[in-house]
Q: What sequence folds into this?
C-alpha cells in the first residue's frame, strides 16, 4: 500500500535518525572498545600522602594537673579596739597598704582625760611614798639610838612597802591609759590590699569583742597561695620529690588552659589524706608582683614532679593501638613500616618512648587511615 504524499518526509527523517543512533552505539561499544580497552583505576593503590615528625631526644618535664583555688597569704579583719566616735578614715577602698599605715582615727579626747587622771593619781601616790620613805629613814636613825620602839619602825616600813605596791599599780594604770589612747589610731596590721569600707566617719563605734562591726578587711596578696588537691595515687611521687629538697615548680593557667598566669613553687603538703575524697591538699606560693592572681580565683594547676633525662619523645597522636600492643608507622626508604613501641610517661601532647624508636626516626602523624605495612608514601612536610 502506498503512503500518502504528505507523510513521506516524516518517515524518511525517522529512518535517518535511527541509522545515526545505531552507528554511534556501534562505535562506542564495539570499535572503540577493541581499540582502547578500559583500564581498572583504583585510587587506593597509589602512594599515600602523609605528614611526619621526627622523634626527638631531650629532657622531659613530668607534670601532674589539678584544679586549684587562689588563697590570700594572710587575711585580717580590721575592727575598732576602743569605743568612741570614728573621726577620720584615711584609706581608699581597694588600695595597697603597708604594715603600720594609718587607716582611721577615733576621737582621742575621752581617753586623754583618762590618761591625765591616771597620771595625777600616780603623782599623788608617789608624793606619799617619798614622805613615807623619809619618815622611815628618820625612825631607823632613832631606833639606833633606842629613842623609839621597834614596833613603830616596822609599822612605818610596812607603810612604805604598801605605797611602793601602789606605785606599781599606778604605773600600770598609766600604761593602760596610754595603750587605750594608742588604739584610737587604727593602723594596718599587715601589708596587702584593703577591702570595702564598712564604717564611715562620724559613726559611734564600740570596742571589739570578737563580734563587733568591722571597719574593713586586708588580704595579703604579695606573696599569695594556691591550694589544690591531688589523688592519693600521685602522692608518693610528689612527697619523694618534695623531700629531696629541690623546689618543685608549679604553674597556674586560666580556666581554658590557654594562658599561663604565674609560676611559683610548692610550699607545703597537708599532714593527712582526706578520706572521703582520697586526695591530699597541697599549697604553692607565688610572688604575684603583678597581681595576676586574685583571692578565691579558680585556676588550673600544673606541678612538675620530676624530669626524665634524655628521653625519646613523639607526639601522642602518632601512637596507634592494636591487639598486639602500641605501635607507630615509621617511614623508611619511602615506605611506611609498622614499629611496635613501649611507651613511658606522658607530658602534655608528648609521650616518652622507652623502646622501639631512636632520635631522628620519622613517625607518621597524619594520613594514618590509609596506611599499612610496606605502603609507599608521599611526604607532605613536617
A:
Amino acid at each position: 500500500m502506498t503512503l500518502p504524499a504528505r507523510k513521506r518526509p516524516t518517515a524518511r527523517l525517522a529512518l535517518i535518525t535511527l541509522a545515526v543512533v545505531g552507528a554511534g552505539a556501534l562505535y562506542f561499544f564495539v570499535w572503540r572498545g577493541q581499540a582502547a580497552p578500559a583500564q581498572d583505576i583504583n585510587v587506593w593503590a597509589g602512594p599515600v600522602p602523609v605528614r611526619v615528625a621526627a622523634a626527638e631526644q631531650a629532657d622531659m618535664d613530668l607534670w601532674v594537673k589539678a584544679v586549684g583555688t587562689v588563697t590570700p597569704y594572710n587575711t585580717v579583719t580590721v575592727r575598732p579596739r576602743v569605743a568612741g566616735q570614728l573621726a577620720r578614715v584615711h584609706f581608699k577602698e581597694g588600695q595597697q597598704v603597708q604594715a603600720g599605715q594609718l587607716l582611721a582615727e577615733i576621737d582621742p579626747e575621752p581617753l586623754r582625760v583618762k590618761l591625765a587622771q591616771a597620771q595625777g593619781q600616780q603623782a599623788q601616790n608617789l608624793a606619799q611614798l617619798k614622805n613615807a620613805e623619809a619618815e622611815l629613814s628618820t625612825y631607823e636613825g632613832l631606833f639606833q639610838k633606842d629613842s623609839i620602839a621597834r614596833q613603830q619602825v616596822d609599822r612605818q616600813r610596812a607603810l612604805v612597802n604598801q605605797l611602793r605596791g601602789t606605785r606599781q599599780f599606778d604605773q600600770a594604770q598609766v600604761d593602760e591609759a596610754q595603750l587605750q589612747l594608742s588604739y584610737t589610731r587604727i593602723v594596718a596590721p599587715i601589708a596587702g590590699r584593703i577591702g570595702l569600707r564598712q564604717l564611715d566617719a562620724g559613726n559611734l563605734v564600740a570596742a571589739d569583742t570578737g563580734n563587733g562591726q568591722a571597719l574593713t578587711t586586708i588580704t595579703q596578696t604579695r606573696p599569695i597561695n594556691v591550694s589544690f588537691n591531688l589523688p592519693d595515687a600521685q602522692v608518693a611521687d610528689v612527697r619523694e620529690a618534695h623531700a629531696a629538697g629541690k623546689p618543685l615548680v608549679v604553674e597556674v593557667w586560666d580556666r581554658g588552659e590557654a594562658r599561663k598566669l604565674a609560676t611559683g613553687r610548692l610550699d607545703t603538703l597537708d599532714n593527712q589524706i582526706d578520706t572521703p575524697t582520697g586526695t591530699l591538699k597541697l599549697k604553692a606560693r607565688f610572688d604575684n608582683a603583678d597581681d595576676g592572681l586574685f583571692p578565691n580565683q579558680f585556676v588550673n594547676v600544673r606541678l612538675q614532679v620530676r624530669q626524665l633525662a634524655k628521653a625519646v619523645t613523639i607526639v601522642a597522636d602518632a601512637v596507634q593501638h592494636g591487639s598486639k600492643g602500641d605501635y607507630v608507622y615509621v617511614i623508611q626508604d619511602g615506605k611506611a613500616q609498622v614499629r611496635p613501641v613501649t611507651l613511658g610517661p606522658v607530658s602534655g601532647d608528648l609521650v616518652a618512648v622507652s623502646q622501639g624508636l631512636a632520635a631522628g626516626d620519622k613517625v607518621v602523624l597524619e594520613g594514618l587511615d590509609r596506611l599499612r605495612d610496606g605502603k609507599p608514601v608521599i611526604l607532605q612536610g613536617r
